[in-house]
Amino acid sequence: MSKFKPALPKGTRDFGPEVLAGRNYIIDTIKDVYELFGFAPIETPTMELLSTLMGKYGDEGDQLLFKIINSGDYLSKADENALQRKSSTGLLKSISNKGLRYDLTVPFARYVVMNRNDIAFPFKRYQIQPVWRADKPQKGRYREFVQCDADIIGSNSLLNEVELLSIMTEVFDRLKLSKDLIEIKINNRKVLEGISEAIGASDQFRDITVAIDKLDKIGMEKVLEELKSKNLSEEACTKLQKFLSFSGDFAVTLDYLEKELSPVSQTGAKGVEELRETFALLENKDRFTLDLTLARGLNYYTGAIFEVVPKTIKMGSISGGGRYDDLTDIFGMPDVSGVGFSFGLDRIYDTMQELNLFSAINLSAASILFIGKNEEAQLFNLDKVRQLRKKGLPAEIYPEAAISGGKLKKQMKYANRRNFSNVVVTGVNEMEQRIIKVKTMETGQENSYSISELIIHLQQQS
After folding, report:
1. Which residue range forms the structural domain that includes residue 347?
2. Cβ–Cβ under 8 Å, residues 189 and 303
3. 3-state SS assignment for residue 17
4. CB neighbours (10 Å) of residue 413?
5. In this structure, are 264 and 389 located in the same domain?
6. Which candidate, 423, 422, 367, places its Cα nearest to that of 394?
7. Could you tell me if 317 and 347 are in contact, meaning their C-beta atoms sit under 8 angstroms apart?
């Protein structure tokens, strides 16, 4: 019988203990900040009805949804005409009504509508769960990845945008991703809509934002080629390029936009006003860049948009979000505005790993290992390990005593492979003297403690 060779689906990964230690460190940091700002956690199902998901992410987004085939004999209810025509799109409608969630924002909007009577508005929630996209896997782009979302829904105040941007800076500061390493970009979809009006292409606003969203991937020339293929005129493309090529600090760019948009677009002028008010409320203004090329291609954004990208390494955005005013209306709950953003756990981890930021962080869950020269020493160690754990101090015991003659080579090899900070080797002398001899693995130094002294020592280290 042939042996099965194990493999993973493309775009998915296993995570070992060392990687998970780093990922959990990032998640714990994000959770701490979310709760510091008053956000409460929720979770939603892995799968949603396709009627919930479809049409919220644009045509390209719909293509990237993972669809789930109906249970049971799904072909018995399949569209015969679609089968005969070999139309996968037509067939799908009759054999699938569920899909894996594409993001956490649309399921959150659905959650709000279904639980509106139990929610106090404005509602501040955070959600940390995996999402799935049938994208082409590449560096920093996976088919299964974790998003760490925070949203405020039920309030139009621009103070909410300021709060979310403050969360961004607090988290990145704690993760040592300073302003020298990352750039936080801000724009407003109303400004982009105003630019579309100013270049005489208001009816092609969606095409323009979808194309601009690819600018950092394909460049200006390809973006303009795509827009020309969608019948945007040469004159409009020239005017658009002028807007997107403008550079200046936040205040200078705002003045430029006000001059160019206010005479021709009320919507654009409103976007400039919102950006100006938001910028005035920001605490660390030098952390933020007004970037007119930022578009966030998802259809549901209606106001402020933001995105974070690394400066020194090649990586896609590691955080992004914005204001959405119409999302709950799709589910029958109009006039509810929301704003939110997401940290991309996987890309943040990849960024920190590439920048070697984990080297300065102690990610070891258990810092001390007890090993024994015989079974009697093992029982002595077990008692000490239990006392440490009762004090909240991580500790482990090697499950097998040394072989006859007291050889410890196997146990020490295990300690080295696990990178324990401290190792306790217990023999006859230690048991007789009721002491714990601790070897610091980094320096090789040995010190003896009573159990109470060891507890104090480890508490000082943690």
Report:
1. 17-65+102-359
2. yes
3. helix
4. 10
5. no
6. 367
7. yes
